[in-house]
Amino acid sequence: MKTPLLDQIDTPADLRRFKEKDLRQIADELRSDLIDAVSQTGGHLGAGLGVVELTVALHYVFNTPDDRLIWDVSHQAYPHKILTQRRERMRTVRQEGGLSGFAKRTESEYDPFGAGHSSTSISAGLGMAVARDLAGAKNNVVSVIGDGAMSAGMAYEAMNNAGALDARLIVILNDNDMSIAPPTGAMSHYLARLVSGKTYRTLRNRARDFTQRLPDFFREGARKTEEYTRGFFTGGTLFEELGFYYIGPIDGHDLDALVPVLKNVRDAETGPILVHVVTKKGKGYEPAESSADKYHGVSKFDVITGAQSKSKGNAPSYTNVFASSLIEEARHDDKIVAVNAAMPAGTGLDKFGEAYPTRTFDVGIAEQHAVTFCAGLATEGYKPFAAIYSTFLQRAYDQVVHDVAIQHLPVRFAIDRAGFVGADGATHAGSFDTAYLCPLPGFVVMASSDEAELRHMVRTAAAYDEGPISFRYPRGNGTGVDMPERGEVLEIGKGRLIKEGSKVAILAFGTRLTDSLAAAEELDGYGLSTTVADARFAKPLDTDLVERLARNHEVLITVEEGSSGGFAAQVLQHLASVGLLDMGLKIRPIVMPDAFVDHGVPAKMNAEAGLDKAGIVSTVFRALGREESEAARRA
Ligand SMILES: Cc1ncc(C[n+]2csc(CCOP(=O)(O)OP(=O)(O)O)c2C)c(N)n1
Ligand SMILES: CC(=O)[C@@H](O)[C@H](O)COP(=O)(O)O
Ligand SMILES: [Mg+2]
């Protein structure tokens, strides 16, 4: 693969030394370099391919990093990384110690704002624009946001504020008519109408003519600009009503159109501007173009065939077990409905949707709405399952508290991606759900230790009508245990004893149970007779079980793949309240570290957190004051 022009670019300043006529070739080279890099690492591909020309044009026209360029979600920022001094390290992306898969402030001065969650770019950009104005500076601020990300309320909150402030902020709406899955919602239909109109087709033919004329209009001021944009294009009125100058739709792969338009936008002395750019997700790589959802995020793949190297586990994924269990429950109960926020495949609800299309709702990237929508459904006697990743549910915390918990509504929360997620790193880690749900009065909080337990918990949640209930499960495959056709209804607030010993007790919450059992076996081998229990519930806590473990053992270890303040905090609070911490019990909570852990491999992340077999054994040895024997054992 020859990339003679790209080879001369280390920074955007190098790019800006080229003639405009070279940009096409640079974009082509950038695209092949991107495909080659991601084929070796895996990662987000389709979105980056779609913004290759836009990335080149933006860095060519704007004076980054002084001009601030903010990528929404930032999964599409790989071409930006290649042009901003990170090309050499692209083949380390999402690997331990390598580049992040997202924009990250600590990684580069060209990343003025980090992301991973969607729809933050306009708010952040507006903050930067206002800060610039307060400081009397003159740089530009550009936020690039996708059509999927445009479905979230935050984007409108920001535009509402930007319009009122009349701040000089440039928003590029990158409309590829795709979220991860095909987009849903009225806004998506509205954008489609703007794009499919006759105006867009004629504009493509007149792009050069248009861009030659644009500077005059901007120089003549805002009134003329508005006249121009309204005169040449239909639509855009929603953005105009919010106080933005709307420009577009523009073919985002046509550099001859993009560059002059962006130059004019850069030089315009106006308030907020929205440039509506139309692109194709996966552009320039046939497998990604024809299957944009499957190439949104990829594992390593063969560039020629496009075949992704999916490692087949021996056990089903937790996501699939959740989906099949819910499908089974829905067969028995027609009040069960399922809601996801733009993650149908990620949550397994695509399968539920095939079985029950009218009982499945993809609300777009709108977790807050998803939760309150479920609350509404619950008030009418439906049994909503909100299937949301742990990390994305954070965004809907007030809705969980105010709309669900306070009203004691039986919304079922299926919390996927709980624990370390690996390659997506800190922005996507499912660390905090247990800690943020346990303090809520009346909430039932469960964690499945394996896929059979997950099946039981889906059934339990379906049967539980008293109030809100949640169950968490991790990314990836189960343990391979036998699963019943249908789960059992678990007794609320009761854990299970798995193995009985006498000196050490390990109380696991969630899938760390497997390592707890392995640790127990090793400890037994050292003459430390070890009990293992699966807590199942962090709330209500099985206080009988916890007290028994505390009274009958010298050491009690709690283990969970979650942050501090979660399950361990519940156990400690209970034991402290009943005086069982006054008796010399050696209790040691093992939780995720108090740090935002970068991308890597989940097994290693757990090992570093002391959440694996070796970590549990070491913790027991340390609790018993046997560090030296432990060191010798390890040697
Ligand atoms: C708050 C939040 N919810 C869900 C996601 C998962 N997610 C990542 S990218 C994406 C689709 C974004 O679509 P769009 O903004 O159109 O970008 P595209 O991939 O099409 O370029 C989704 C749903 C997220 N990152 N953040
Ligand atoms: C960028 C983003 O938020 C999603 O694409 C996310 O990376 C998906 O994660 P999973 O692969 O765990 O579904
Ligand atoms: Mg999109």
TrEMBL record:
Pathway: Metabolic intermediate biosynthesis; 1-deoxy-D-xylulose 5-phosphate biosynthesis; 1-deoxy-D-xylulose 5-phosphate from D-glyceraldehyde 3-phosphate and pyruvate: step 1/1. Mg(2+) binds at D147, N176. Its cofactor is Mg(2+); thiamine diphosphate. InterPro entries: Dxylulose-5-P_synthase, THDP-binding, Transketo_C/PFOR_II, Transketolase-like_Pyr-bd, Transketolase_C, Transketolase_CS. One of its GO terms (biological process) is isopentenyl diphosphate biosynthetic process, methylerythritol 4-phosphate pathway. It comes from the Bacteria. Residues 316-481 form the Transketolase-like pyrimidine-binding domain. Keywords: Isoprene biosynthesis, Magnesium, Metal-binding, Thiamine biosynthesis, Thiamine pyrophosphate, Transferase. It is an enzyme of class 2 (transferase). It catalyses: D-glyceraldehyde 3-phosphate + pyruvate + H(+) = 1-deoxy-D-xylulose 5-phosphate + CO2. Belongs to the transketolase family. DXPS subfamily. Homodimer. Catalyzes the acyloin condensation reaction between C atoms 2 and 3 of pyruvate and glyceraldehyde 3-phosphate to yield 1-deoxy-D-xylulose-5-phosphate (DXP). This is 1-deoxy-D-xylulose-5-phosphate synthase. The gene is dxs.
